[in-house]
Amino acid sequence: MKLSLYHKLAMSLAGIFILIASLFIWWTQALSQVSRAQAEQQLHMGLAEHLVGDNPLLQQGVYDYKALENLFHTLMVLGPSFEFYFVDPSGKLLTYSAKPGEVKRQTINLVPLIKLIDQPEQLPVYGDDPRNECGEKIFSVAPVYNGDTLQGYLYVIIGSKLYDSIISNIKGNDQLIIGLSWLGLALAFLLTALLLLFKYLTRPVAALTEHIQQLEHAQFDISKITLLNWNKAHSNEVHQLGESVNNMVKTIDLQVKQLAELDDQRRQLLAHLSHDLRTPLASLQGYLEIIALKKHDPDQQALHLGVALKNCDQLKSLIDQIFELAHLESGHANVQFEVFNLGELLYDVMAKFAIRADKMGVSLTISPTVCDIKAYSDIGKLERVLTNLIENALRHTGEGGAIEIEVNQRGEHLTVTVKDTGVGISAKELPYIFEARYRASNSKGCKKSHAGLGLAITERLIKLLKTDIRVQSKIGVGTEFSFQLREAEPYSEKAE
């Protein structure tokens, strides 16, 4: 049988409660007995001394044991809660009030008697019970002298065997039963109250457990289940835990949806890339087959080889971009921040596109022309970003257009802007330009010459450089891409 948290707590509480109640009852009874013994012994402390002083036989030191036995018997009839014994100086019983056969031992220990005589304030003191071989009882004692000679001790047991028997019977009757009944009812009421309190305290835990099981059954899809409403301001830790569970479930649901969306995007990207890979590959195969069939025409072979090589370059470029994007998305790309001259990097990147721009009739400029500025970034990844942005600008800029890289110092940061006077990007396309499969519908270049991965790679590189990229564009006016870098002087001594 599987027990819930409440059942375990209830059983543990009941066991501890019964143990504590038993110890409490035992302790109160023991304390009550000690208190009663102390009170009775103190009350009857002078009983033996008065009997010695008032009895002529004991005063004169004449011991007619038969007469003394009759005296003891008479006193016991008058006071049935007492037992009388006359003990010699060695502790031997000389006479007593008990009937023959009731006394189990003939000698008692005198140490408690002497202790009570010498130190009457230290109560209770227990002495040997002659009617019990191992028992002890409270007593009253007085020495008996004949002149200056000690003749023995009058030893009076307080609480005779008859008295104990009567008390025992009383305890077993109605009073004890009523007392125990009230005690049992009180304990049962207290236990019930505590169990109800535990039930109240563990109810949120049970609700949270059931809620988590329902979430697990629904595979953490919050559209299939209603989340419990926990009080955020509640001081109960279970409510706080429940709110944390709700937040965790929402995060899991969001991540699952994002993974599903990402998986769908990957499938679409794979389908598109497969088409892009198949196109140059099929063209390459076709031209190679033509070359193989028309070996007799060198001019045609040269033309076909040129087209085949162009398809090979396109295929290689596409595969390189795919691998680069996969490497960036894997999270294994390393970043090496260093201090370098930003102007030198910009002119190096411009030089790579100078011939191509001249053929297209597009001007390339850097502002300011003398750009002697120190930057702190990853020079390799920044070069890749600038290359992608300029290549993208060339693709969208027609003859007579211009591309400008502008650097502005704003406080402790450098703002790099790549501007073009191309056809621009429509407002409806702007939210999607950094997607891996985006390819602008108004591109001026050949759409077969690229796979639409340049801006996607750029965005991921920008994130590695710990900055953001922004874009502004108007149809017929042009497009601006801008991002920020850290200036070297304030940060050159800091390691990333």
UniProtKB/TrEMBL annotation:
Key word Transmembrane present: yes
Signal peptide location: none
Keyword field: Kinase, Membrane, Phosphoprotein, Transferase, Transmembrane, Transmembrane helix, Two-component regulatory system
Catalytic activity: ATP + protein L-histidine = ADP + protein N-phospho-L-histidine
Histidine kinase domain residues: 272-489
Cellular location(s): Membrane
Protein name: histidine kinase
Source organism: Pseudoalteromonas citrea
